[in-house]
Every structure is written in C-alpha cells, then in structure tokens.
C-alpha cells in the first residue's frame, strides 16, 4: 500500500500550485455570502424576525422543500432565520468538490498529463489520493472562513465551528462520491454529470423529506439534510458531521477499490458504441459542436427550468413579507422577479463561459487539429462553437424566464407576471453575448488567456450584489450594470444595442485573429 502512494505529496503540491487562484476564488467567493445574506435579512426582517417568520407561515411547506429542515423558528432570531440559506452554501461546497476531484483525476487522464506523470515514480493510488487531499484542504479552509463569517454575524464560537464544519463535511461527501464516479465513467463530463445527478437526487430527497416534518426519519437518507440536522444554535450536535465524514471515507474507499479494476484513461462502464456511419447532418462543424454540447445544454435546461419554477412559486409569499420594500422596492412581486431575473442571467453566464471553454479543450486535446485537417475552415469551426453557445444561452434564458413567470402566475393568479418575468430574463441576453465575445476574443489571442473572462464575470457579480455604494464610474465598468432591471424599470434600447454590437464585434474580430494564429 505504501508503494501505491509514492508521489502523493508531489502531486498535491502540483495541484495546489495549478489551482493557486481557483481555490481562493472558490472558498472566499462562497464565504462572503454569509454577511451578504445576513445583511439582506436584517434589511427585510428588521428588528422583528419573529414577525417575518410568521408572515411566511402560509408558505412554510414550500420553504421546507426549498430550505428545510430549519429548527428554532418558533422563537426566531436573525441567526436562526439565516440558517434557511444553508442549502445555497451546501450546493456550492458540493459543486466545488465535484469539480475539483474531476479536474485532478479524470481531467488529467483525458488531457494526457496523467500518462506523462506516470512515467515517473508515481504510485497507482497517488493521483486519487492527491485529489482527495486537495478537496479536503479546500473544504477545511472553507469551514474556517464560514466559521469566521458565522462569528461575525453573532453565532457563538461552538455554533460557528459546527456551522462551518457541517457544510465542509457535506462537500467532502461529494468529493468521495466523485472519487467513485470517475472510476465508472469514461470521461470527465460524464463523471461530473453522474455526481451532479446524485447531488440533485439528494437535494430532491431532502426537500421531499423536509415537507413531511422536521423530524422525519427520511431526512437521514440524504447527505444534503445532515448539515441542517446538526441544529446549530438550537440543539447543537456533531453526530451528523461524523456521519458525513464516514460516508465520504466509504465512497473514497469504494473509489480506490474500483480504480485497480480499470486502465488509465478508461472507465468501468464502457461508452455506448455509435453508429458505423454518421448521418449526413453531422458533416458540418456546427452539427459537431451541437452534438458535443447537446447533453450539457439539456442538463442546464432541466436545472434552470426547475430553478425558475421553485423561485417563481415563492412570489406569492414574498408579497406578504413585512419590510420587504427595503430590498425589493415598492412593488414586492415585481422587484423580486427582477432580482431573480438578474440572478438567473448570471447563472446562465456560467454556462456560456464553460461552453466556450470547450474550444480550448478541443485544441489542447488535438481534436481541433483533426477537424482542421478536413475541409473545415478556422472561421467556420470557431464560429460554430460561438453560435451553439449563443443559441444555448438564449434558450436557457427563455426557459428560465418561462419557469419563473409560470410559477409566479400560478402562485398569485396574476397572468401579467409571465410577460414581465420572460422579458426580465431574456432581455439580459446582450450582456451574455458581450461575455461570449470577450471569452472568444481571449481564446483567439491565446487559449491560456480565456480564463480571464471569469474575472470579467466575477467583477460583474460583485458589483451587482455588493457594489451599490461604489462610485458610478466603477459600477459602469461592469457589463451587467447597463440594462435596466425589468420589469421594475422600463426597457431601454440604447444599452441593448450597444452591448449586442460590442458582442458581435468582439466575435467577428476574434474570428479574424484566430484565422491568423497558429493552433
């Protein structure tokens, strides 16, 4: 066993160096939402959180599905009320862990770096062990930052440590689950997708169990419930944290056991064989890009549609929140919809950036060279990827707005909300078109620079949610600050045209630059 771990430390240091920017962005980016959400609650609930909880009593079942179980609300404080945001932190920690383990295991095998590394003296289990240690270190740092944030909003020392540890432990569970899925799947996308499906199943199971009651036994079947079951502040217990760590260790052990049954670069589940001859429509670069991205777009469509339906179903409850004017404006329902429209557009922006990042993967894997070896031109190849990304982005925005509007209409009986929701979300497409243009331009100049598009995106998110007190000139630097927040604010043609022209111009220039660059 000792020989199987030779080189683990070296690979761990390599992983820390490669992710020296990614890991701080993940951990700090998640932890800063502790004071943000708490300040939002202070604004909406004011000095009487119990009244705010009582106002939501009619929507309690829906809230349990969305955020439950939540304990201690019969004597509500802002700190107890804040725990209703647990699921957002749990999802972020789980996704971070899934992406980390996939990137440093199956991702390394797909890129060919794993094969290169194994030419040195590296034990068979060293890569997986280094990836899991990296996930453990990252979640430990996240636990510390979340605990500090909880201390800052009034948690006691022990409660803050329990709160941060319970979320990080859930992240470890999904790191362990991913250690297993990367042995089963033949590609990083499939392995991440399998872990993502299990995350969705765990979340749905938690919601279904929470709707049956705060003490329903089925809550113990979902790892997404265990952090809530630690009951910080009301009745703190470390048992669920120990359960999470044990579960993570069990899945990691299963991953080790399965890893010795497969070859490097292959999965235990053989990929489905394709047809002997491809259909004629696959002969174009657009068809190839669409086929490559179709499953990703499908999963995003399901997720965004469900998210829109869940968020939209809360519009009726928002309308009765006392003091909500400070956060949503005079018209609570319209203000809530406009805020969610911005949030959903930013989430779709994540799809746009990850979709465009595939062109870099196509180039580094050598598939671009194979494509350009045919009659396909550089412009048509890159243009096809941009077109598929832009069409997918537009479709996701439309589906998100439709889900939000339909659920809001059903919850309130006001059909006028449907048009406002669809317009408020779809109307932000020019912002994402500009983001796609920036990503394409950076790739055309140098593939290694494409990641800088995330800086543009992150700056826009920070300015949108935290930058209201900054000078207007600083806010205007963000591409997400120019289109009005519909339906609260009226439509303005100028920003829509300017951002659309900028996005198209960036894509056009990028195509010309890419044609002249060596690939």
UniProtKB/TrEMBL annotation:
Top-rank lineage group of the source organism: Bacteria
Chain ranges passing through the membrane: 21-41, 89-105, 126-154, 160-179, 191-211, 238-258, 297-319, 339-361, 382-405, 425-445, 452-470, 490-514
Record key words, sorted: Membrane, Transmembrane, Transmembrane helix
Designated name of the protein: ABC-2 type transport system permease protein
């Amino acid at each position: 066993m000792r020989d199987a771990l030779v080189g683990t430390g070296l690979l761990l240091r390599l992983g820390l160096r490669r992710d020296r920017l990614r890991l701080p962005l993940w951990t700090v980016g998640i932890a800063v939402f502790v004071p943000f959400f708490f300040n939002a609650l202070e604004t909406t609930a004011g000095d009487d959180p119990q009244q705010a909880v009582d106002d939501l009593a009619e929507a309690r079942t829906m809230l349990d599905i969305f955020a439950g179980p939540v304990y201690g609300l019969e004597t509500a404080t802002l700190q107890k009320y804040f725990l209703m945001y647990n699921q957002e932190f749990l999802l972020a920690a789980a996704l971070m862990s899934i992406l980390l383990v996939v990137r440093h295991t199956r991702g390394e095998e797909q890129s060919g770096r794993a094969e290169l590394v194994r030419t040195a003296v590296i034990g068979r289990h060293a890569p997986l062990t280094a990836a899991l240690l990296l996930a453990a270190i990252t979640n430990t740092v996240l636990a510390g930052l979340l605990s500090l944030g909880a201390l800052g909003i009034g948690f006691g020392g022990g409660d803050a440590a329990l709160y941060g540890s319970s979320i990080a432990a859930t992240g470890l569970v999904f790191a362990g689950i991913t250690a297993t899925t990367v042995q089963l799947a033949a590609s990083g996308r499939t392995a991440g997708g399998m872990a993502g499906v299990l995350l969705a199943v765990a979340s749905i199971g938690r919601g279904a169990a929470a709707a049956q009651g705060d003490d329903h036994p089925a809550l113990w079947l979902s790892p997404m419930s265990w952090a809530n079951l630690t009951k910080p502040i009301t009745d703190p217990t470390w048992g669920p944290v120990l359960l999470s760590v044990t579960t993570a260790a069990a899945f990691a052990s299963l991953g080790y056991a399965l890893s010795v049954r497969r070859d490097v670069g292959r999965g235990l589940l053989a990929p489905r064989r394709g047809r002997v001859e491809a259909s004629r429509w696959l002969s174009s670069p657009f068809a190839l890009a669409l086929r490559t991205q179709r499953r990703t777009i499908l999963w995003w469509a399901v997720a965004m549609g469900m998210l829109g339906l869940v968020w939209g179903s809360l519009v009726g409850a928002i309308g009765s929140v006392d003091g909500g004017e400070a956060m949503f404006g005079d018209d609570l329902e319209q203000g809530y919809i406009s805020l969610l429209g911005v949030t959903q557009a930013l989430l779709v922006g994540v799809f746009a950036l990850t979709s465009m990042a595939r062109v870099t993967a196509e180039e580094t894997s050598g598939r671009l060279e194979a494509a350009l070896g045919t009659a396909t031109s550089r412009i048509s190849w890159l243009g096809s990827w941009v077109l598929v990304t832009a069409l997918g982005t537009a479709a996701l925005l439309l589906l998100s707005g439709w889900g939000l509007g339909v659920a809001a209409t059903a919850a309130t009986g006001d059909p006028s909300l449907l048009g406002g929701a669809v317009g408020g979300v779809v109307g932000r497409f020019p912002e994402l078109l500009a983001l796609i243009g920036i990503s394409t331009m950076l790739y055309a100049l140098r593939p290694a620079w494409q990641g800088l598009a995330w800086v543009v995106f992150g700056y826009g998110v920070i300015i949108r949610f935290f930058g209201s007190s900054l000078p207007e000139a600083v806010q205007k630097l963000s591409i997400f600050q120019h289109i009005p927040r519909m339906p609260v604010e009226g439509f303005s043609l100028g920003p829509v045209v300017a951002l659309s022209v900028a996005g198209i111009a960036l894509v056009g220039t990028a195509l010309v630059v890419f044609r002249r660059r060596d690939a």
